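Hi C.,

You asked whether I'd gotten around to modeling the 224-residue construct. I have! Everything is below, sequence then structure, no commentary in between.
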Amino acid sequence: MTKEQCEDILVMLKACYPNFKLELNSKESRYWVASLIDLEFEKAFIATQQLTKTSKWAPSIAEIRAVYTELLLPDLVDAEQAWGIVVQAINKHGGIYSTDAAMNELPRQVQEAVKWIGGIKAISQAEKPDVLRGQFIRTMEAVNKRVTKELSLGPKLGNQIDQIRLETKQQEALLALDTKQGIPQIEYGPITDDSRIDYNIRQCGMLRDVYARTQQKLNKGDLS
């Protein structure tokens, strides 16, 4: 939504909650706008309206996004219900003989859970279906949790978090490659022995060098 639409939501909150002292165009309001602007206006407006009807206190950004996420998940399938849908699809299409047809009939999140436990064929041929059912339910719950979190964060923030995680992994990999003996270790605590002090100084120097090389490679995009 636009900045003006975000401000419409803030105006609603000010009208419904006299103690909501946020002033438009203030630093605080700009933070609210930045935290809500990635949402679709109509659903965000409905989510805020819903909260104003059920809460005595002005909702937080997190509460608005949580209700907004619920509006985006009308087709979120309960884990137990999802297992029933999978079994029904297998019985309808013949399991191992029509795996694609059975898979295509499943909701996207259910398909993901099925793939994680080995696919339609693995379910059809399971010698202990109750064990596989338990694995599927746990997997389905994890998928639902991840999807809900992704929608709550929004694509922009989610991508930023993924990028930070990727860069961290790349830095760790480069550190391991740049030092055959692994990441230099520092000794902590009171150290009075001159040789150990010199050791720490050398290790700190190595860490600085490795970090500098890592940053240069990251800046150049020279990563393998």
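If it helps when you're writing up: The mean pLDDT is 77.

Thanks,
B.
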